[in-house]
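STRUCTURE:
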C-alpha cells in the first residue's frame, strides 16, 4: 500500500512527471524492489584497496552484485595509480552498470584524479574565478569532465558553494571557494555543474548551509557555526536551486543553533534539511550526507544512530567510507537497523520511498 500511495500521489509521481517517461519507468521499477534493495539504493559505500583485485574490491563487488549498495565512494587511498582507480571503477561498473561511482574532483587541493596520475590539472576554485570568466571556466571544466567520464566515474562530490573567508582553515585557506558573494559563486559553480552534467555526471554541491566561515574542520570533530554563520551563506545555494542547476546537495557536519536550536548537526537536522532546504528554498533533488565516518560523527554517535538519524532527517543518500573500522557486512547491518526503525515507528517505508524516488529521477537525468 505504501508503494502504491507514493507512486500515485507522493513525491515519486511528482518528480517523475517532471522528467517524463524515462524517470517514471525508473521510479516504478525501483518501488517494486524489496525493501532491502531500496535501502541499498541509498548507500554510497567506500572500500579499502587501491586496485581491482584487493579484498576490499571483492567485498564491494559482491555488495553491488547483490544490490546491497547503490554506489561506491573512492577516497584518496583508493587512487594510488591511474590503472588501479580506473580498473576498480571498470570492475564495479561491469557488475552494476547503473551504480554510482563517486569521487572528489573539485580541482586544486581536492583533485583525486590528479596530474601526478596523468590527468589534466584543474586549478583551485579561487584561481579559476580570478583568471577566467564563467564561460571560460566552463571550457576548462568540460575538459575535466571528459576525463572524469572516461575514467569511469559518474558522480563528482563537487563543486564547493561555500563563501570565501581567508581565515577559514578547511575552505578559505586552500582557495576552494569561488568568491565571497553569492552571485559569483553561483556563476562559477553553475558552469562547473553544466560541464559535468553534459557528460552524464551528477554533481554534489557542498557544504550546505555554508562551511566557508566556520572555524574548524568536521573531519576532526564538531564544527559549530552558530556564531560565524549568516544568511548570506545561503545565497549561492539558493541561486543554484532557482536556476535549476542544483540536483544533489551535500550537507556539512555543522552545528548551527540559528537554524536548529537543539544543536543537532545539519546531517541530523530535519529543520535544516526539510524545513529550510526543501520547504523554504524549494530544493527537490537528492540530499546526501558527508561521510558519516568523519570524526565529527564517528566520535559522538554510534554508526547505527548516525545512519538512522540521517535518514530520519531527510537524507536520501548515506555516505560511509567504511574505512575507520571496516565492516564487510555493514550494508546488511544497515538494512536490519532500518527494518527495526520502521517496526518501532521511528522511520516509515514512505520515508525510504521518497529517497528511492529522488535517486531514480537523478539517474534518469544523467542517463544511468
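SEQUENCE:
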Amino acid at each position: 500500500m505504501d508503494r502504491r500511495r507514493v507512486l500515485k500521489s507522493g513525491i515519486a509521481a511528482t518528480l517523475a512527471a517532471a522528467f517524463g517517461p524515462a524517470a517514471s519507468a525508473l521510479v516504478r521499477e525501483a518501488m517494486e524492489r524489496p525493501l532491502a534493495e531500496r535501502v541499498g539504493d541509498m548507500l554510497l559505500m567506500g572500500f579499502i584497496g587501491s586496485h581491482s583485485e584487493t579484498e576490499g574490491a571483492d567485498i564491494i563487488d559482491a555488495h553491488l552484485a547483490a544490490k546491497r549498495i547503490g554506489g561506491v565512494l573512492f577516497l584518496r587511498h583508493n587512487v594510488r595509480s591511474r590503472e588501479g582507480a580506473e580498473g576498480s571503477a571498470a570492475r564495479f561498473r561491469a557488475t552494476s552498470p547503473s551504480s554510482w561511482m563517486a569521487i572528489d574532483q573539485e580541482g586544486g587541493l581536492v583533485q583525486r584524479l590528479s596530474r601526478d596520475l596523468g590527468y589534466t590539472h584543474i586549478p583551485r576554485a579561487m584561481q579559476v574565478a580570478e583568471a577566467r570568466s564563467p564561460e571560460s571556466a566552463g571550457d576548462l571544466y568540460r575538459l575535466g569532465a571528459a576525463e572524469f567520464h572516461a575514467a569511469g566515474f559518474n558522480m563528482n562530490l563537487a563543486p564547493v558553494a561555500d563563501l570565501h573567508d581567508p581565515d577559514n582553515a578547511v575552505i578559505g585557506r586552500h582557495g576552494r571557494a569561488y568568491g565571497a558573494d553569492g552571485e559569483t559563486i553561483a556563476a562559477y559553480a553553475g558552469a562547473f555543474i553544466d560541464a559535468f552534467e553534459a557528460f552524464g555526471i551528477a554533481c554534489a554541491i557542498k557544504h550546505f548551509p555554508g562551511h566557508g566561515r566556520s572555524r574548524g574542520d568536521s573531519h576532526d570533530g564538531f564544527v559549530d557555526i552558530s556564531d560565524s554563520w549568516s544568511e548570506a551563506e545561503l545565497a549561492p545555494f539558493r541561486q543554484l536551486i532557482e536556476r535549476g542547476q542544483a540536483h544533489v546537495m551535500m550537507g556539512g557536519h555543522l552545528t548551527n543553533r540559528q537554524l536548529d536550536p537543539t544543536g543537532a548537526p545539519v546531517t541530523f537536522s530535519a529543520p535544516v534539511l526539510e524545513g529550510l532546504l526543501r520547504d523554504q528554498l524549494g530544493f527537490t533533488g537528492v540530499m546526501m550526507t558527508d561521510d558519516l565516518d568523519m570524526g565529527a560523527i564517528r566520535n559522538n554517535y554510534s554508526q547505527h544512530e548516525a545512519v538512522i538519524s540521517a535518514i530520519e532527517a531527510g537524507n536520501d543518500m548515506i555516505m560511509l567510507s567504511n574505512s575507520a573500522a571496516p565492516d564487510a557486512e555493514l550494508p546488511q547491518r544497515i538494512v536490519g537497523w532500518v527494518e527495526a526503525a520502521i517496526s518501532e515507528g521511528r522511520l516509515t517505508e514512505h520515508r525510504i520511498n521518497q529517497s528511492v524516488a529522488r535517486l531514480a529521477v537523478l539517474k534518469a537525468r544523467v542517463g544511468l
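REMARK: The CA atoms of residues 152 and 340 lie 36 Å apart.
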